[in-house]
Amino acid sequence: MAGKETPRQKMIGMMYLVLTALLALNVSKDAVEAFKLVDKSLTKTTENFSSKNELIYQEFDQAASENPIKAGPWRNIANGVRERADEMYDYIQELKIEIIQTAEGKDTEALEGDVIIVEHIRKIDENNIPSQILVGSDQNGKAFDMKAAMEEYRGFLMDIVGNKNVSVSSSIEAGLNTDDPVIKGEKQLWVNHMFQASPLIASITLLSKLQSDVRNAEAETINFLYQQIDAGAFKFNKLIQTVITNSNYIMKGNEYKAEVFIAATDTTQQPEVLVGKYETTVNANGIKEYRMIGDYQTLTVDERGRGIYKLRPTVLGDKTWGGLIKMKAPDGSIINYPFQAKYTVAPPNVVVSPTAMNVFYVGVQNPVDISVSGASSDKTYATMTNGTIKRGTTRKFRGSFIASPRTPGQIANVTVTAEINGEKRSFAPIPFRVEVVPDPVAKVGDKNSGSIAKSLLEVQVAVFAELENFLFDIHYDITAFTIEITDRGFTVTEASSSHRITAAQKTLINRLKRDSRIVFTDVKAVGPDGRQRSLPPIVLRIE
Question: How is domain 441-542 classified at the CATH fold level?
Answer without folding.
Answer: Immunoglobulin-like (2.60.40)
